[in-house]
Amino acid sequence: MNILALLQPLRPIVSQTTMRQMSVLMGAMLAMTGRVTMLGMARWTDKGGSYRSVQRFFQTTIPWIQVMWAFFRDHLHQAGDEYLLVGDECVVSKSGKETHGLGRFYAPLWGRPVSSVALFALSLVNPRERRSYPVMSEQVPSQEGVNREVKPRTRRKKAAAQSSAGRPGRPPGRRNSIKTEVTLTPELTRIQTMVKQFLAVVDQRLKLTYLVLDGHFGNNNALQMVRQCGLHLVSKLRHDAALYFPYQGDNKRCKYGAKVAYDNLPASCWQQTIIDDGVHTDIYQATLRHKAFAQPLNVVILLKTRPTTGAQARVLLFTSDLALNWSQVLEYYQLRFQIEFNFRDAKQYWGLEDFMNVKKTPVTNAINLSFLMVNVSQVLLQDLRREDPAVNVLDLKAHYRGHKYVAEVLKLLPQKPDPIFTEAIFDRISRLGRIHPPQPALCPS
C-alpha cells in the first residue's frame, strides 16, 4: 500500500513537504532494523530522506492532535461503534542530562524512580474490536517527578492546635466545604486540558461518554475533573475503601446509612459468580456513598476466594454513571489495559525508547511519530489479516523489509525481469523472517 496515499487526510493540516517527509520516514521505519533514531532512519530512506531532511522534519512544528484525529477518523473509525477514551502514563528511560522533560519518574518495570521522560497519552478503545488507537500524548513536566521537594508532614493535632490558638474542636465560623468545588492539582489540570483539547477537535462523528483511568485517579478530585469535561469516570477504588449504603430513613439531612461490610454483603446486590482456575469470583453491584466523594457511586465489588486455601482478594470498581450495568463497568475497566499495548508497540517497533533528540520540538515529534506509526501499522495490517488473521507487526516489518531488499536488487539489473517473475520474487523474499508466513505461491517455471 502506498503510504503517501494513506496520509492524504493530513493535506489540510500539514504542508506538502512535511507530508512527503513523513511518508519517506514511515517507509524507512517499516523496513529498517536496529534502533529507530534519526540517523538510523536516514540510512534506510530512499531519495528525499537524507539526514539533513530528517533533521528538518523533526524541527518542524506539527499540530499532532489534528494529525492523529484526522488519520483515525478516515482510516480506523468504525461508524456506529462505541468508543472509550482511555488515559495512562508511560515512562521512557533516558540517560544524559539535556533531554527536554528529563526527570526522575517512577518506573513500574524497575520498581523505583529512574532517569526518564514521562508522558501521558489518550487512546480510543473500540470495545467490539478490543483494540486501542492512540490519539494524543503530552510530556509530563519534570517538576512532577519524584525529585520535587517534599514538604515535611506535620501532625494533625499540632496543626489544629496552632490554627485554633490552643482551643480544641472545630474553629468558630467554619463551614462545610462544597465537594464539587475542588482545587485541581497540576497533574489533573494538565489532563483536563488535554481532554478538553481533544474533545474540541472531535467532530459529531464520534460520541464519547466515558473516560477510563487507573486506580491512581480513584478520588473525588479526579471525578470532578472528568465531570467538568462532560464525561463519566470509570476507575478503581482502594480495596479497603470505606463505603456506605445510602440512608433510607426519614431524616432528610442524613446521607450515609450502614457501612458496607465486605464479608457480609446483602444478597440483593449479588449479580453473578464466576469460577475460573479454582478461584470463585462473586460479583456485587450497588449504588454506594463515600464520604470523600460529592455524589453517589455505581460500585462493582469483586470478591475472589480460593476455596482450597481460604485466601481472599477484593477489587472495587466504580463509575459516576449510576445507570451503567456491572458487566459494562467490568469490561470497560479491563479494556483500559489495551493502551499498554500501544506503549509496547511504540517502544518495541517505532522508536519511542530509541530516540536521541534533545530539544522540545524534536522530542515531541519523535514521541508522536511513534504513536502515529502504531495507527499506521494497524491500517496496513488490515490488508494482511484478510489472508491470515494471526499476522502481527513483526510480520508487517518483514514484509516491507523484503520488498525493500528486492527493490534495491532490481536497480542493479541491466534489464528488469518479467512482471510475473518479479511479483513471485517479491512474494518469496517478503516471507523471510516472518513469524506467520503465508502459503507459498507457485513460482513460474
Notes on the protein architecture:
Helices cover 35% and strands 22% of the residues. With 445 residues, the protein is of the alpha+beta class. Strands 1, 2, 3, 4, 5, 6, 7, 8, 9, 10, 11 and 12 form a twelve-stranded mixed sheet that branches. The radius of gyration is 27 Å and the shape is elongated.
State the secondary-structure class: alpha+beta
Q: What proportion strand?
A: 15-25%
Average pLDDT rating: 90
Could you list the spans in which at least 5 consecutive residues all have pLDDT below 50?
441-445
Please give the alpha-carbon distance between the first and last residues: 28 Å
The radius of gyration computed from the alpha-carbon positions, rounded to a whole number of angstroms, is 27 Å
Tell me the helix content.
Answer: 25-40%
* Count of DSSP strands: 12
Report the order of strands and helices: HHHHHEEEEHHEHEEEEEEEHHHHH
Specify the biggest β-sheet.
12 strands, mixed
Assembly state here? Answer: single chain
Number of helical segments with 4 or more residues: 13
Shape: elongated
Key descriptive features of the protein:
RNaseH-like_sf; Transposase; elongated; 12 strands; IS701-like_DDE_dom; alpha+beta
List the helices and strands and how they pair.
Blueprint: H1 3-6, H2 16-31, H3 38-44, H4 51-58, H5 64-75, E1 83-93, E2 103-107, E3 112-126, E4 131-139, H6 156-163, H7 186-201, E5 208-212, H8 220-228, E6 232-237, E7 243-246, E8 256-259, E9 270-276, E10 279-290, E11 297-306, E12 311-319, H9 326-335, H10 338-348, H11 360-385, H12 393-410, H13 419-429
Parallel strand pairs: 1-5, 5-6
Antiparallel strand pairs: 1-3, 2-3, 3-4, 6-12, 7-8, 7-10, 9-10, 10-11, 11-12
